[in-house]
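Weekly modeling sync, notes
Attendees: AB, CL, MP (scribe)

Item 1: holo prediction request
CL wants a bound-state model with iron/sulfur cluster before deciding which constructs to order. AB pointed out that an apo prediction alone won't tell us much about the pocket. Agreed to run with the ligand included and paste results into these notes for async review.

Input as submitted:
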Amino acid sequence: MNTSTAASLPTFQAKDFKSDLKPIWCPGCGDFGVLQAIYRALAGIGRAPHDIAFVSGIGCSSRIPGYTTAYGFNSVHGRALPIAQGIKLANPDLLVLVAGGDGDGFSIGGGHVPHAIRRNADITYIVMDNQIYGLTKGQLSPTSPRGLKTVTSEYGSVESPVNPLLYVLAYGANFVAQGTPADMQGLSRVIEEAIRYPGFSFVNVQSPCVTFGAEDVQVKEHRAHMKSLESLGHNPSDRLAAMGLAQHYGTELHTGIFYRNPEPPPTMDGLLRERQQTMAGKGLPRERILDAFVQK
Ligand SMILES: Cc1ncc(C[n+]2csc(CCOP(=O)(O)OP(=O)(O)O)c2C)c(N)n1
Ligand code: SF4
């Protein structure tokens, strides 16, 4: 932290968000790069670590909060989003981030994603999509491609993968981006922009699993094949164009912002705060705030 000029606000550097815990990921795991990108993005945002709540589920990627100096909650498999929404509603002043894997977010936790989107609490969800269950040693995940051979699909997967980008766009997410640790600058930029977006924001990170992941989706391959949406002339305020591009998930590696609603709708935490103030003005008891929430 730096407080050089008198009366100026403290500024933060990436290292201020690095905890003393040493990551225990396999050497070369994509999650190392994602963690660095998160440090950089948080330095750009400028909020103090004690103003940030970082929630995760269970998985290799869900270890991320522990490697930061923010308040962290390594919670229950697939349940990070409801916990994060609760934290945001209880203390809207916190910057609330969520991290986890594709299994955590799109199989066991898949039912929570649409509701987090439609409630639109101001939280940022970063998924480390490695198309495999890493922590439990290489089973099929919901984003594994058809034909992938794993310990639970010895002769190749016979299932179509979930497309996380189309999934969240179809449910009306207002900010959707994708990145890869092969492009650290681009990745930290999209994470920072996602955090700055007022409302639920989603970043899918193609984060290779070097131990159990397919050989053709490693960082080297990403570097050779990634295409920035900006270079394609994509207009991120065009939802239908974003959905068109998102259909190439699994065959093309597009990086950058797919969709950013230029007119952000009200957030749930913002609406509740307003309602809280109105009710307090009318002298209504605090317990009724919850009634108002239920009736919405
Ligand atoms: C309720 C419950 N079911 C299953 C598990 C076992 N489990 C832990 S992590 C995990 C999947 C990990 O894959 P992913 O979420 O994609 O994260 P990654 O390890 O690849 O980062 C599973 C099935 C669990 N911990 N809790
Ligand atoms: S098993 Fe895969 S996802 Fe987990 S730490 Fe190792 S490389 Fe990373």
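Recorded for review: The chain has a mean pLDDT of 94.
Action items: CL to compare against the apo run; MP to circulate these notes.
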